[in-house]
TrEMBL record:
Keyword match Membrane: yes
GO biological process entries: proton transmembrane transport
Source species of the chain: Proteus mirabilis
Name this protein carries in UniProt: Na(+)/H(+) exchanger
Transmembrane segments: 23-43, 63-86
Any one GO cellular component localisation term in the record: membrane
Cellular location(s): Membrane
InterPro entries: Cation/H_exchanger_TM
Domain Cation/H+ exchanger transmembrane, first and last residues per copy: 18-93
Length: 124
């Protein structure tokens, strides 16, 4: 990120920029894969221990665990879209060009596609 903001990569030859882009894309893919592998390995253990603890504690029920997960999920979803909207609005103050607050590609009939990744993650 620092290199892209400093302008060093813009002055580099095309071959170097292509290699740098390929390397960063590969590293991003590898780190993304590692995160999902770690989540996949830890999730069953967390799930079973949470259900066992909920069964042992008379004040906690399994539906309360599901409710907490959904509340946190939707809070993070709202936080993410709020953060993106604020970043777009704030970036409008620092750049000369006129950036639209809502992309013309995002129309009311396409809102379902924005929520599709969350549905795919939660589906069994």
């Amino acid at each position: 990120m620092t290199i892209s903001k400093s302008g060093v990569i813009r002055n580099a030859p095309l071959a170097m920029r292509l290699r740098a882009d390929s390397v960063w894309s590969m590293l991003e893919f590898v780190f993304n894969g590692l995160v999902f592998i770690m989540l996949g390995l830890q999730l069953p253990v967390i799930w079973t221990s949470s259900v066992i603890q909920a069964d042992l504690d008379p004040e906690v029920e399994v539906w309360m665990l599901f409710a907490a997960v959904f509340v946190i999920y939707f809070a993070l979803l709202i936080l993410r879209f709020t953060w993106l909207w604020l970043m777009k609005k704030i970036s409008h103050l620092f750049y000369e060009k006129n950036i639209p607050l809502i992309s013309p590609l995002i129309r009311r009939e396409n809102y379902g596609y924005l929520l599709l990744p969350g549905y795919v993650v939660l589906s069994p």
